[in-house]
Amino acid sequence: NLMSPVPSVYETSDNHVIEGFDFDDTIYLPPRTSKKPVHIRCCTSKYSHGIIEIAGLTDTLFVEISSNVRIMVSAVLKNIVVVGCSNIELVIGGNPPKVVL
């Protein structure tokens, strides 16, 4: 029985994490001083109105086990990896990087 994580946004030594949200509004990750990867996991929106907005430069974007979410990211330098997701809309500013599905 897989438990959903508690909704939270936090930073580890390796990355920025957005996880466990069941939402229909906007989660905003402001520009960061580092370009650490951003990891979005276990986020869902009932009516496809949920938006995760990531401002500033991001090294790599990982999205896993999420559904019905629009992800708006200013710039991704390396890769975007999407695993175990459904109905994910990516809006990428600037030149898009390699996307792995």
Structure in words:
The protein has strands spanning 8-11, 16-19, 26-29, 38-41, 50-58, 61-64, 67-76, 79-83, 86-92, 98-100. A 6-stranded mixed sheet has the order 1-2-4-6-8-10, with no helix packed on it. Strands 3-5-7-9 form a 4-stranded parallel sheet, with no helix packed on it. The model has no long low-confidence stretch (mean pLDDT 90). The protein is mainly β and 101 residues long. The protein contains no helices and 10 strands. A hairpin with a 4-residue loop joins β1 (8-11) and β2. 0% of the residues lie in helices and 53% in strands.
Which terms summarize this structure?
101 residues; six-stranded mixed sheet; 0% helix; globular
What's the arrangement of strands in the largest beta sheet?
1-2-4-6-8-10
Largest sheet entry: 6 strands, mixed
Low-confidence stretches: none
Q: Give the total of beta strands.
A: 10
Radius of gyration: 12 Å
Mean of all residue-level pLDDT scores: 90
Report the β-strand fraction as a percent range.
over 45%
Cα(first) to Cα(last) distance is 25 Å
Order of helices and strands: EEEEEEEEEE
Shape: globular
Task: Give the class from helix and strand content and strand pairing.
Answer: mainly beta
The helicity comes to under 10%
Number of helices: 0
